Amino acid sequence: MTSFRKQLVRGLIATAVVASTLAVGAPVFAAKSGDKCEQRDAYKIAKVGTSYIRCEIVPGTSLHSADPKKKAAFKWKTLTGKAADAQWVMSSAKNASIRVDGSSTVAPLATVAAKYFETATKSVNGKKGVKVAVGIAGTGGGFEKFCRGETDISNASRAIKSSEAAICAANGITFTEIPIANDGLALVVNKSNPIDCMKMSEVTKLWKTSATAPTKWSDINSSWPSTTIKLFGAGTDSGTFDAFGDLSGVGGKANLRKDASTSEDDNVTVRGVNGDAGGVGYFGLSYAIENADKVKTLKLDKGAGCVEPTIATVQGNTYPMSRPLFIYPKNSSLINNPAVGAFVNFFATNVKQISDDAIFVPLTDTQIKALTGALARIAALPKKKG
To answer: How many domains does the chain have?
Structure first.
């Protein structure tokens, strides 16, 4: 996980699955709507009279703005209507632990959601708030744990494979697939590299296993420097590794070159590319944006010209290496641990702000409809009795 996200962690629809089992209290609270609050209190919620207020980022400000006038500011905001009741119910989850594991790409997003949710539950229940533990076993490793029944939610940077779903089914584990954000895989090189754009055919040539695989940049294009290529990439258990095997055009992960330095930690790729003139690697767009001072992000051309990876090009699917991200809550956990349902609903209901804060590409309207449908299915699950 990147340093920014570590600092951040430290520093729309359904709640029926949890509503009947969560205790609701109303601690004494002195703040009122419009008062300033701190980043560490983001998503803290309180009941004031008959209404609810929550600490939220001020619209028009950002955690990532370089403009001092737009630096993130936080204020208490009044929540209204059924949405207010829903947020209060979610925040009333207590005395529970939630186990999340899987994709290293999705982990920072889930970690921000977990931090906000923990803050909300502790504001209502004090030390009895919910604890959410987020691991980074990689998408494949996460599904292995999930299908063994070891986790409540699996983060994934790709959809679950039929073979993985079959293992879950054999173990009696059912789940709900929820699209949660979008990401683009960025191809990055050392900042001294003069290349600005690569054709996808060149990307394929660079990364595909072959007896004549290029060892120097000039082997791909004679006009490029003769600098020795040094490859860096995601760990083999990572959904990023799987996705790159498909999106790079090599024909799947089995065809990716084996001479790359790989790691589940994208910071290793950042350091490797930054420290080698011929370095090249890949990771999620959010990491590329965050590390723009250390590595150079390349534009990609799949036949219609060079396209820079941005929020707009990833959402519009004009950037060649784009992908959706998912979370997979286990249905039995949703039924038996009300806090899991509360967390999933909190995450989904506040996903736009969470995506912005964690530097991810928000969902499209079509994906939001899919998310809404998933929440409706979760709400229809039988509730825990007793």
So the answer is: 2
Reported as type and span, the H/E element at residue 201 is: helix 200-207
The Cβ-side half-sphere exposure at 42, using a 13 Å CA radius, reads: 21
- Among candidates 227, 236, 50, which has minimal Cα distance to 138? 236
280 falls within a domain:
yes
Q: What are the structure tokens assigned to 290, written together?
A: 């965050």
Residue 234: give the domain boundaries: 183-322
The verdict on 37 and 158 lying in the same domain is: yes
Neighbours of 163 (CB within 10 A): 8
Q: Is 60 left (phi over 0), alpha (psi -120 to 50) or beta?
A: left
Which helix (DSSP H) or strand (DSSP E) does residue 76 occupy?
strand 74-79
Helix, strand or coil, per DSSP, at residue 39: helix
For residue 325, the surrounding DSSP H or E stretch is: strand 322-329
Task: Answer whether residue 124 is part of any domain.
Answer: yes
**Would you call 163 helix, strand, or coil by DSSP?**
helix
Which of 281, 303, 322 lies at the terminal end of a domain, its last residue? 322
Report pTM: 0.78
- Domain check: are 40 and 128 in the same one? yes
Residue with token string 């983060």: 155
Tokens standing for residue 92:
């009333």
Question: Cα dist. 326→149, 332, 363, 380 in Å?
Answer: 18, 18, 11, 20
Tell me the pLDDT tens digit for each residue of 221-278: 999 999 999 999 999 888 888 889 989 999 988 999 999 999 988 899 999 999 999 9
Do 10 and 135 sit in the same domain of this protein? yes
CATH for 247:
3.40.190.10
Would 384 be classed as within a structural domain?
no
Q: Are 234 and 266 in contact (CB under 8 A)?
A: yes
d(CA 216, CA 220) in angstroms, rounded, equals 8
Q: 288 and 341, same structural domain?
A: no
Select from 211, 10, 33 the least CA-distant residue to 112: 10
Distances (CA, A) of 133 to 74, 111, 152, 155, 359: 26, 8, 10, 12, 21
Q: 45-76: per-residue pLDDT in tens?
A: 998 888 899 999 999 998 887 788 899 999 99
CA dihedral 349, 353, 354, 358 (to 10 degrees): 160
